[in-house]
Amino acid sequence: MKKGGLAFLLLFPFAISLLGVVTSSGGFQRIEKDLIGIEWDYAPQVGFKIQGEKVKLIAHGIYDKTCALAYGNDLVWTLQNEDPNDEEVHATLEKSTKVNDEGNFDYYLLALSEGDVTLTVANAKGTLSKSMTGIIYKDFAVTVAPKVSPSQSNIDPSLYYGEFDWGSQGQKRKAEIDYSFSVFPSSSLNESASLELASCSDNLEVDLAGGKVKVKNVVEDVEEASFVLSFKGKKRATSFRLVKNGINVYTYSDLLKCTNQSEDGEIVCLRRSFESLSRYAEKDEKGNPLFEGGQPKQAKDNVALFGNFQGYSSSGSPLYSFASEVYSHPTTMDTSYLDQWNEFASGDPLYADSVLSKEVYAGLRVQKDFYGNGYTISFHNLAYPYGTTTILQEDGTAASIPTLTKENLFRGPLLTYCLGDPTRFPLIGLYGEDNAGIYVDGDGILINDLVAKNADYGDSFTFLKYCGTVVDLHGDGITLANCQLSSGKNVVRAFSCKDAAIVNCLLSNALNFCLDLGSDSLEPLQAEKKGSYLDLDGAVHNVSYADWMASSKGQDVLNGYLGTLSSVSSGDTESTKKAEKAIESIASSTEREDWKRDYQTTVTLKDSYLYKTGVSCVGFENSFHGPFLYNASPTQIGSLLEMLSIPIDGEGHSLIPFIPKGMALQMKPSLLKVEGKTDFYDDKKVSDIVLEGILQQDFTGIISILPDDLKDKLSTLKKSLGIDAIFPLKEALSELVVSKGFQNAESGTVSMPFSYYGGGINNSALELSRWDNFLPYAGEAKEDLVHYYLYRNSDGQERYWNFLYRIVTMVTGFDDFRFGFYDGSGSHVGLSPNVEDLKKNAQQGGVAP
Hints:
Elements: H1 3-20, E1 37-39, E2 45-49, E3 55-57, E4 60-62, E5 75-81, E6 91-99, E7 105-111, E8 115-123, E9 129-137, E10 141-146, E11 160-166, E12 172-174, E13 176-184, E14 196-200, E15 204-207, E16 212-215, E17 222-231, E18 234-249, H2 252-258, E19 267-270, E20 273-275, H3 277-280, E21 291-292, E22 295-296, E23 303-305, E24 309-312, E25 318-320, E26 327-330, H4 336-346, E27 359-366, E28 370-371, E29 376-378, H5 380-383, E30 387-392, E31 398-403, E32 415-421, E33 425-431, E34 436-441, E35 446-448, E36 451-453, E37 469-474, E38 479-481, E39 484-495, E40 500-503, E41 506-518, E42 522-524, E43 530-534, E44 540-544, H6 545-550, H7 552-562, H8 574-586, E45 601-606, E46 609-613, E47 616-620, H9 627-631, H10 635-642, E48 665-667, E49 670-675, E50 679-681, E51 695-697, H11 700-704, H12 708-715, H13 723-726, H14 729-739, E52 754-756, E53 765-767, E54 777-783, H15 785-791, H16 798-812, E55 817-822, H17 835-843
Parallel strand pairs: 2-9, 11-18, 18-19, 19-28, 20-23, 27-34, 28-35, 29-36, 34-37, 35-38, 36-39, 37-39, 38-40, 39-41, 40-45, 41-46, 41-47, 45-49, 46-50, 47-52, 49-53
Antiparallel strand pairs: 1-4, 3-7, 5-8, 6-7, 8-9, 10-13, 11-12, 13-16, 14-17, 15-16, 17-18, 21-22, 24-25, 26-27, 30-31, 32-33, 33-51, 42-48, 43-44, 52-55, 54-55
Helix pairs in contact: 1-16, 7-8, 8-15, 15-16
C-alpha cells in the first residue's frame, strides 16, 4: 500500500468528522416556495365610478414555476376606508365561487358612495402585498401621482423625496418630480372648470401646466411637504417628506454615484426598483427576455436593471461590468489563518500562485441614510451563480443546480481555517466573512423601507451557498427600519457593531440565519492561565493549559476519550465516567473571565418578523478552539496529517502542504435584545435542518490517492458517509426536543429561533424582558455532545462512528451547543408573518424615522 493510502486509512475518520462539524447532509433538501412578487397595472390612485356595475380587479402572483408553490400563496383582495374614522361604506368586494386559471379566486369591486378606500392584494399567508388608493366617484374625480410609479409595497406610509437630483453633467440640482395631475372623465375639463392649485407648502413649487413639482429650500433633516389641488370644489391633497441633502435615484448610474463611487457617500432616496434581468425585462411568449438595441427591454417604468448588461458569454452566462463597479474592502474578520497560509505560499515557488485574498465584495457601500420607499434592490445579477449543472439524485431523477462560472465575483466567504491546499485540494475549510449585497459602513446610519434580496433562487436553501449576506452592518448605532430583506446565505450580519436596531422589519429565507451575530474581536486562548485538570485516574493537576496539552497525562486524557477504531469505550462504564470528567475539566478552562459580558455586538430586534431558514432565525457565532486547533493535539492526529504532505500530482503539490498553528481562538460575545411584537416563524422537522454554507469541503484529492482495495473496504460500510451520519447533531437534537417537550406531537416539527455555536466558549446572550410574545417561548436547552458521544451505543459498526464523532470535538472544543425553543404546543406550526401588521405598526408612528 502506498504511503498516502496508509495515511488516508488512518486519517479518514478525522477528515470526514471534521467535515461534519459545520455542514449537514440535508444536501439538496427541497423546499416549497412563496410568491416572489405581485404584479398589476394599477396606478397609485385609481378612480372607480358609481354606476351599479362590478369591476373586476386584476393582479398576478409571480413565482418560479420550476418550484413547488407553498400553501397559502393564492391572492386575496381586501378593502378598507383610507380614513379610519370614516364609517361610511364606499365600496364592497365580491369573491367568485370558482378559481381562475392561475388558481386564484376573482374579486370584483362595487362602487357605492363617494370616498377614498385602500385596496390591497396579498398572498393568503400575508408575506407580501401591494396597495393602491381607490377613489370612488359619481361625476368626476381628481388623481395625483408621480409619473414614475411608487412601489406600492412600502411599509412606511410616507414617501421620501430627496432635495436633489443628479444633473446630466453629474452635478447636483434641485429636484424636480414629474407628476400626473388628472381629472376624469376628461370631458369634465372646460374653459369654465380647470384644475387649480389650492395650497402649497413653502418648500415646494407646483407647475400644473408642466406637470412638475419642484423642491425649494429644505431646512430640517426630514420635513413634511404638501400641496392641494382643487376642481369644482373637490380637493385632492398630496403629502410626502423631503430629505435634506438627499438625492433621488432613478438609474443604476445614480445609485453608484451615491454609494461606491462616492468617497463619503450620499443620502439615497430610491425612485425605482433595481431588479434582476428576469424581473426587469419584457418577455416573449416562451418567457425569454426581449432585447432592443442589444439591451434588455424595460417592462415597467418604475423598475431599472441592477448592473450594466454586456451580453452573454460563449457558454451562455450573462455578462456584467460589476468588476469595476462593486466595492472591495479588506475583511474585518480575524486573518490568522490567511496570514499564515500566505506567508507559507509566498515563500514556496510551488505555491506562489496560491496566495489568498483578504478582500470581500459588496454590491453597494452605504455610508449615509438610505430611503427605499418600498422599492426593491435585487443583487441576483451579481450574487447568484451564472451557470447550471445537471446532477443525478439518489432517487434516480435529474436535477439542475446553480454552478459558479469564471465570471462570478461572489464565490463564497473567506476562509478562517483550511485543512489542505485551499486553492487545489481544500479538504476542509471553515468560512468567515462573506461578500454582501449592502455593506453599511459608518455610525448612525438609517436604512428605511427598503426591499433587498441577493437572489431569486430555486427550491433549495443550498442554492444560496455562494450568494453572500444581504445586509452587513459595520458601524455603531445603525438602524434598519420598515425593511423587507431576504434570500442570502445570511440575511443580516452584525459583527462588532454596537447599539444596532432592527425595527419593524421582515427578514426571511436564509441558508443559515436571518440574523447572524458575532464579533471580530478574537484572541488566542489564555494558554498560560492555570487551571485544575483531571487525569484519567481522577488526580488533579494545577497547571496551565499549555503545560497540560504538552504533558503525557494531558495527551492520555485526549486519547482515552478518543479511543481507537478497534476500542471505543462507551456507556455507563468506569472508563467512560473518568474520560468525561477529565474532558469536562478542559472545557472552558481557558475562558477569559473579563470577556463574559464584554459584548462587542449589541442588537435590538423590535416589532420584527423572522421567517424561513435552513438552521434557525438567529445564530450566535463563536470561534472553535479544540486542542487540534491549538497544537494539533492529540499527537496521533497531527502525525497522521503530516503523512499527507507527499506529492499527489505531477507538479509536486501535496494534499496537506501546511498545517496552521495556534488557531484556537476565543470570540467576544454578542447581546440580542428581543422586544415588542417580534416573532419567529420557522417551524420545521429536525431532519429538515440544513447546516450547509459555513464550510467548504472537497475530498476529490484525497480520494484520488486511495488504493482500490481500500475503496472496496469503504464501499462495504452499511452507513452513508453523509454529514448526518458523521456529525449526528440531528440525531442528538431529535432526542433532546422530544425529552424536553419542544416537538409538536401532531406535526412533528419544532420552532427553534435561536442557535448558539458550541465547541468553543460562547457567552452570547438574549435579553427578553421587553418581548411581548414571550409566552410560548420555552427557553434554552444545552446539547452536550461530549456526553452524548460517550454514552452512545458502540456495538458493531457504531464504534467506528463514535470514534469519528469524538474527533470532531478535538477541533471544535468541548463546550455545549445551545438552542432556544418555543414550546411544543404548536403555537407557530404552519404560521407565517403578515406584512400588513408591519404597515399598521408604521402607521401608528412608532417606527417613523
